[in-house]
Amino acid sequence: MKGLVHIYTGNGKGKTTAALGLALRATGQGMKVIVIQFLKGKADCGEHIFTAKYNAFEIVQFTHGNCFVLPEEQLKEDVERAIDFTHKTIHSGKYQMVILDEVFIAIRRRLLQTEMLVRIVKSKPDSLELILTGSSAPTEIRELADYVTDMRMEKHPYLEGVAARKGIEY
Fold this sequence. Notes:
alpha/beta; Rossmann fold; six-stranded parallel sheet; 6 helices; 6 strands; globular
């Protein structure tokens, strides 16, 4: 099977959720899946609890703590480690699906150069399914993708002061 490139982007909710749905579906069909999370440091999210309990697929984080308060230098180091790991992972032959969750946030925050992600996408093995998430996907990456889904927020309870809810937003 030829592996394709998917993008879930935009300002609406559901980018990570859509990617995790693909991970669940792929795992159900016997594919080996890994999720590499950029700039996410919570280990109590539902997907982490699920994978710890059922060992369905792997999730790896390189940021530990709240990325909104960590020093930029620390975040840059975390992103560099995540990119090195990503490059090794996609060329390891161990996985049929690799998800780079919130990778576009790293680009938007200038912790990762678009050109680096372009190189990763272009160098992926033909059989690998690659999923990229995060708001503000750059045009250069969109043009390389086979699927581009732009999540658009029409309404969100957060705008009315409703905090993130366990099991829904995390």
